[in-house]
Amino acid sequence: MHYRLLGNTGVYVSELCLGAMTFGTQWEAIGTLGQKEANALVHRSLDAGVNFFDTADVYSTGDSEEILGRALAGRRQEVVIATKVRGRMGPGANDVGLSRLHIMQAAEASLKRLGTDYIDLYQIHRNDPVADIEETLAALTDLVRAGKVRYIGCSNLPAWQLMKAIGIARQRGLESFKATQSYYALVGRELEQETIPLIRDQKLGLLVWSPLAGGFLTGKFTRAGSSTSQARRATFDFPPVDKERGFDILDALQPIADAHGVSVARVALAWLLGKDVVTSVIIGARRMDQLEDNLASVDLRLTGDEMAALDEVSRLPVAYPYWMGALGDDRAPGQSRNLEARLRK
Questions:
Q1: pTM > 0.85
Q2: Distance between CA 236 and CA 253 in Å, rounded?
Q3: Which of 41, 183, 189, 331 has the fewest Cβ atoms nearer than 10 Å?
C-alpha cells in the first residue's frame, strides 16, 4: 500500500479507502452486509495497509456508521475516519440539510454511532440550496474548534460553489474544505473540466467515489447485457453512464487486462491511481473476492502507452469555454495556427 497527502493537511492516507456504503441492512440495492461480513472486509483492508475508511450518516440510516465503528474497535488510533452530513435522517422538518441546527445534531449522532470522540474528516454530502454556506462553514468550524472534528471536506459540489466556500472561509477566518469527494471514472471524466484545475490550484485532496461507475467497469456489462443479475447496476443504474461510449472504453480496457492477466476492474482502478491529482480511491465490496481484486490494483502499474490509450478512448469533447484556451496565446507568434489540430488534442 502507498500513502498520499490529504490536501495540505500533512496527513497521509492510503491510496485506497474502504467505503462502508455496503454496510447495513436497509439499502438492498447497494449491499446488506451485517457485522460479521463487515468485520472481515475491514480487517482484511487493515492487514493490506488501508488506513482510510469512509461512510455517511445516511448510509442505511446510521447502520453503516455503527457497523464501521464496531469493526474498528481497538484500532481507532491507526485509522482516518471520514463521514458525511446532509441527507435526511428522520421525518422532522430539520432532520436534513446543512443548517447549524442539523449539523450539530448530526455530528453528535455520528460520533455516538462510530463510537469515537472525534471525526477525522467531516464532509458535507452535497449542496443545500436553502442553507447559507457561511452558516454551514461556521458550524463546521465550531466542531473543529471543539475538538470533535479534525478537518472538513465536501462532496459533489460544482466548482463555483466549492471556490465560493473556500473564498468565504478565507475571508471570514473559518475552517476551509481540505478535500472534495467526487465522482471520477474512465466513463465519467467531467470533473476534469473545472474541478480538477481548482483542486490543483487550491491544493485540495481528491477522494474518488464510484471509481468503477457503479459496477459498469467491472467487465460484467457488455452490449449484449449484464452477465449477472446480481450486479448492482442491474437493479440500481447509477451513476449515469453513456452506455455506447462506455462500451468503447470497455473494449479498450479488455486487451490491457488480458496483457497483464488481471480483471478489467483492476485496470480501471490502476488508471485512476496513475493520476497524480487523486489522493485516494474509495472502493466498496460486498464479497471478499471483490475486495481482494480491488486491493491488488495498487500493484498494477500501467505503461505510458496504456495510460495514453485509455485517456484517448475516454476523452470528453472539449466544451465551451475550454476550447477557447486551445486557441493559444496570441502574444506568441504562430500560436493561433492549426486551431483544428489543437482542438482535437
A1: yes
A2: 23
A3: 331
Whole-number Å distance between alpha carbons of 220 and 231: 8
Q: Give residue-wise pLDDT tens across range 101-110.
A: 999 999 999 9
- Return the DSSP state at 185: B
59 among known catalytic residues? yes
Cell numbers linked to 212: 468503477
The owner of cell 457485522 is 35
Kind plus residue range of the DSSP H or E element containing 53: strand 52-54
Separation of alpha carbons 242 and 263, rounded Å: 22
Q: What is the pLDDT of residues 76-109, one digit of tens each?
A: 999 999 999 999 999 999 999 999 999 999 999 9
Confidence of residue 31 (pLDDT cuts 50, 70, 90): confident
**What is the band of 226 on the pLDDT scale with cuts at 50, 70, 90?**
low
What gap in Å lies between CA 90 and CA 95, rounded to an integer?
Answer: 5
pLDDT band at residue 221 under the 50/70/90 scheme: confident
Virtual torsion, Cα 96, 101, 105, 106, nearest 10 deg: 40
Q: What is the CA radius of gyration of the chain?
A: 21
* Whole-number average pLDDT of the chain: 93
Domain topology for 3-314: TIM Barrel (3.20.20)
Q: Which of 269, 323, 319 shows the shortest CA–CA distance to 299?
A: 269
Q: Structural domain boundaries of the chain? A: 3-314, 317-345
- Count CA atoms within 13 Å of residue 276 on its CB side: 3
> Catalytic residue among 59, 122, 151, 184, which?
59
208 CB-near residues (< 8 Å, 6+ apart):
181, 182, 183, 184, 185, 272, 278, 280, 281, 282
Tell me if 60 sits within 8 A of 87, measured CB to CB: no
Burial environment of residue 228 by CB neighbours within 10 A (0 to 12, 13 to 18, 19 or more) = exposed
Three-state SS for 133-149 is HHHHHHHHHHHHHCCCE
